[in-house]
Amino acid sequence: MWERASELLERADKVQRRFFHLSQGGTRACWEPPVDVFESDEELSILVALPGVEPGKAEVGIESGGIVVRAHRALPEAFARGSVRRLEIPQGLFVRRIALPAGRYEVIEHTLRDGVLVLRIRKAGA
Fold it and tell me: Which residues pair with 107 in a beta bridge?
C-alpha cells in the first residue's frame, strides 16, 4: 500500500514540475502546460491544462506533424497593484506542441471549460 501511495505522490510531483516548465523555444519564453492524450480508432482526444485562460482565448492549429495550442494568461488587473507575496500559477504566454503520429488530422472540437482545453481531433479516413 505504501509503495503504491509513494508511486502516486511521485507521479503527482512530476506532473506539477511539468506544469511549471518554462520553454525558451522561439523568440520569447513561454509556459508549457501539461496534457493528457487519448486515442481511439477514429480520433485523438487531448486535454490541456490552461488555468485562468478565458474561453475563446486559446488558439489551436495543426502544424508540421503536430498540434499547437497557444494561449495567454494575464495577471488580473486588481492584483497587479499590490506587492507579490507568492506567485505559483504561471502567467503570460502558454504554448504547447503535441506531436501526432504520421497521418492527416482535422480538429473537430475545441472547448475551454473550467481551466481545461478539450480537443477532439479526427483521423483522416476514419
Answer: 121
Q: Which residues sit opposite 93 in a β-bridge? A: 72
Q: What is the 8-class DSSP label of residue 112? A: E
Q: 69: closest CA among 46, 92, 87, 89?
A: 46
Domain spans, the chain: 2-123
Q: What was the pLDDT predicted at 29?
A: 67
Which residue is listed with cell 513561454? 30
**CATH, domain 2-123, list 2.60.40.790, 3.40.50.300, 3.40.50.720, 3.30.70.3180:** 2.60.40.790
pLDDT tens digits, one per residue of 59-81: 999 888 899 999 988 877 877 77
The candidate with the shortest Cα–Cα distance to 50, out of 38, 37, 68, 32, is 32
Mean pLDDT by 10 residues, the chain (126 residues): 71 59 59 91 94 88 89 81 80 89 89 93 80
